[in-house]
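REVIEWER CHECKLIST
Item 1: Sequence provided? yes
Item 2: Single chain? yes
Item 3: Sequence as submitted:
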Amino acid sequence: MGIRTVGAYLPEREVKNTDLEDVLLTRDDWIRENIGVEVRRMAAEDEWTSDLGAHALRDACARAGIDPAEVDLVVCGTYTPDNMAPPTAMLIIEKAGATGATGFDVNSGACPGGVFALDVGARYIASGAYRRVAVVMADVSTRTLDWKDVGPAVIFGDGAACYLLERCAPGTGIGTTLLRSDPSGYRTVWVPRQKRKRRDGTPRTSGFGDNFAQLDGAAVRSFAVGRVPDFVRELLAAAGHSTSDIDLFALHQANLHIVHGILEELGVPRDRTVTNVERYGNTSGASVPLVLREALDLGRLSPGDLVVLAAFGSGLSMGATVVRWCGPEDFAATAGTAGGVR
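Item 4: Structure as written out by the authors:
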């Protein structure tokens, strides 16, 4: 199972740290120093998760030179669905023109979804039941914010990405994958139902009513820097590799300093990763594939490269996989031999 290409979409609206100074008791220099974010993207009022996801899916198909109608299955990884039901994947199918595709959502806790949802899609390819699977990671995280709660408000941004998966040549593509969850940290990063009021007693609501993002920043950092490096080492040991074998580490963009902290604990130089949290904010489940897309655009990722994808966050959960990056010939060699069809 290989990642044929990665589609991406970022909303046009940019929100700078200086813009937040008008609504939050914070400063641009504090955010840069403690979080590493300089600007983030925010969905327009009429843009929802399905809109972002449809753009990313179409972009992936355009890069692969196929029509969206050639996609067999759409898995949408999101914690901000357009509606409680039916799944947002169905709206993405409709808006992207993926006529005839089957679709469902996976809520793997937002940020960890960059690997959890990918693993779901990869297993459908491996089963032979589907020839081409689009794993669309999309969230409108800013809709979950209380703009008086500084912690989440300075971190998150909106965005979407799409892994386009197909069967590939043996020895290439997605390899060993590990997933872990620690429910003792359930309330470290979460979006609970909680009624809030303004000073005048009127209800305060988010874009999802009484649902508001909350996080314990210190606990998240302790979890990420304290446990993710050993988790990555466990993955590499299981795959028969060491950190020196890896050409690119695509890490969840929780916070610039967390990314750097994980690399430091692994003994890996910063030039073996790509970061975008500075410009996009924490884009939740989309952040890992957005790192891959940026690496591809920058020429930092080539066929044959070994890549570690690591996503972590609410749950507390973490997922990681090793990928031998494919070239076009790795998919051409398996054309017409993918097994079952939709």
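Item 5: Key structural point noted by reviewer: The chain has eleven helices and 15 strands.
Item 6: Recommendation: ____
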